[in-house]
Amino acid sequence: MTQGEPTVELRRVTLGYGGFIAVKDVDLTVPTGTFVTLLGPSGCGKTTILRAIAGLVPALGGEIIIKGRRVNDVPIHKRNIGLVFQNYALFPHKTVFDNVAFGLKYRGVDKAAIEKRVKRALDVVRLPGVESKLPSELSGGQQQRIALARAVVIEPDVLLLDEPLSALDANLREEMRVELKSIQRTLGITTIFVTHDQEEALALSDCVVVMDHGRIEQAGAPEEVYRWPASRFVADFLGQSNLLPGQIIDVANSGATVRLSGGGEILVRNGAGAQLGQAVETVIRAHRVMVRPPGHETGPNLFDGRVQSVAYLGGMAAYVIEGEIGVHAINTIDRQIFREGDRVQVSIAPEDCVLLDDKGLRIGH
Ligand SMILES: Nc1ncnc2c1ncn2[C@@H]1O[C@H](COP(=O)(O)OP(=O)(O)OP(=O)(O)O)[C@@H](O)[C@H]1O
Ligand SMILES: [Mg+2]
After folding, report:
1. Taken in order 165, 166, 170, 174, is the CA torsion positive or negative?
2. What is the CA radius of gyration of the chain?
3. What gap in Å lies between CA 105 and CA 279, rounded to an integer?
């Protein structure tokens, strides 16, 4: 297989249970060696897609292709797939060695090779020497690594991970997150990861696939999806955003000016396609709303305001600002902390504004 050819491809795939359609006409391409994350609210169809790739749920329509082969009718044991689920499901009465060796024995690999590969898999997950232990003698994080070792030892075409970190506490979860990424990189293994934790998705992925109600809303690099949400749903679901209703009062040079319903006018750099008089929403990430002392900056999109409330979040402060414009802002506390009642200036770069039409879809780009 050539470099850049996708390992997994879904073409207009529809999935369901009984008469219920859980996933509708989904197209997805997972390039070889990449880490792709399915992100979305509970019930949006993430697990169902993983199950379909594994062969646990039949496709009602469309094609599932793994390494160039249509696998719709290929049973699970004939697809070369590594699976890790939330409740890692190790065999409790088997040793770590037997747990990790399971898939290799099943495939008829000879004994010497099994020993070598199990040892290497345990090295990769940084748990050398635990072969003779039982799962119950290991911590949650260690058991999760064994589950990972068991999945990668067979050298699967694709590794499917369904919220594998969600049973772990916050600290361990973060640690395992870093480790998971480094294991994926080391092995260069094509990975599809499911989470509803957006931070996890943004931190780990080459590509984030945002889903809602059985459909893909947007797929792209984390920074792209974050910066250029394709829809209201993505803007709202990913990160903290201001969604300000208004109307287009000027268009020029592929930019636009919006009169906000709450007062004030805002210049938007990417407004190609916006129509004069059109009702829009302007999306501005809370992290991109800059709160400064009055008269601090010059340029477009400066608004006088007052701090209505402030919450301290470690190195960041979350402000609610009222005045010429009503917005939420999250700023690092580097130079200055503002307090309730302080007069401030709000500055928003025109390139940080995204326009949505009345159907909630992005205008421009
Ligand atoms: N075995 C099943 N039988 C019937 N309906 C199911 C079954 N499994 C899932 N569903 C339904 O299919 C839809 C998608 O479920 P799925 O498990 O794929 O969601 P998910 O995105 O993984 O959610 P979560 O984040 O809660 O795990 C949901 O509406 C769910 O109720
Ligand atoms: Mg799920």
Report:
1. positive
2. 25
3. 63
The residue whose CA is least distant from atom 17 of ligand 1 is 47
Q: Is residue 43 in contact with ligand 1, taking CB distance under 6 Å?
A: yes
Supply the residue whose CA is at minimum distance from atom 16 of ligand 1.
45
Would you kindly state where each structural domain of the chain is located, as residue ranges? 6-230, 240-363
Task: Give domain 240-363's CATH number out of 3.50.50.60, 2.40.50.140, 1.10.510.10, 1.50.10.20.
Answer: 2.40.50.140
Q: Which residues contact 69 (CB under 8 A, 6 or more apart)?
A: none
Ligand 1 pocket, residue 262 CB under 6 Å: no
Q: What are phi and psi of 79, to 5 degrees?
A: -100, 140
- Protein residue with its CA nearest to atom 25 in ligand 1: 42
- Residue located via tokens 């998705």: 201
Pocket probe mutation, ligand 1, options 14, 15, 24, 48, max atoms within 8 Å of Cβ:
48
Q: Tokens for 275?
A: 């129509």
Q: Is the CB of 42 under 6 A from ligand 1?
A: yes
Cα–Cα distances (Å) from 325 to 116, 258, 353, 356, 359, in that order, read 64, 13, 14, 19, 24
Query: What is the CATH class of 6-230?
Result: alpha beta
- Residue 297 corresponds to which tokens in the numbers above? 């900056």
- pLDDT tens track, the chain, 365 positions: 445 679 999 999 999 999 999 999 999 999 999 999 999 999 999 999 999 999 999 999 999 999 999 999 999 989 999 999 877 689 999 999 999 999 999 889 999 999 999 999 999 888 999 999 999 999 888 898 999 999 999 999 999 999 988 877 888 888 888 888 998 998 899 999 999 888 889 989 999 999 999 999 999 999 999 999 999 999 999 989 999 999 999 999 889 999 999 889 999 999 899 999 999 999 999 999 999 999 888 889 999 999 999 999 888 999 999 999 999 999 998 777 899 999 999 999 999 999 999 999 999 86
- SS3 state at 289: strand
